[in-house]
Amino acid sequence: MRYYMRNLLIIILLLAFVTLGSVAKIKDKDKDGIPNAIDEDIDGDGVPNIVEVQHGTDPFNPMSYLIEDTFLGGG
Ligand SMILES: [Ca+2]
Ligand SMILES: [Ca+2]
For residue 19, how far is its CA from the centre of ligand 2 (angstroms)? Predict the structure, then answer.
């Protein structure tokens, strides 16, 4: 149940980020042809939005990333 609530919170935060992006009229932040609303990596830095939200980095800022690449451990 706690895991479910955490994922729900992550989804809400992600939606909030996407909404803020729309308000700021950022339609396709990384110019890859995929609109932010459905882009799994809005800033195009190679880190999925959900991973950025989980780790507290900004999914709209490619300069905001993790120092440690723990999420890449699985290959
Ligand atoms: Ca995009
Ligand atoms: Ca990203």
Answer: 16
Helix ranges (H only) for the chain are 2-23, 49-55
- Looking at all shown ligands, the one closest to residue 26's CA atom is 1
| Predicted TM-score (pTM) of this structure | 0.56
Cβ pair 50, 71 in contact under 8 A: no
In the chain, what percentage of residues exceed pLDDT 90?
52
CA of 54 to the centre of ligand 2 (A): 12
Span from the CA of 38 to the centroid of ligand 1 (angstroms):
8
pLDDT in tens, 21-45: 665 565 899 999 998 889 999 999 9
Task: Extract the tokens encoding 46.
Answer: 């190679």
Tell me how far the alpha carbon of residue 13 lies from the centroid of ligand 1, in angstroms: 18
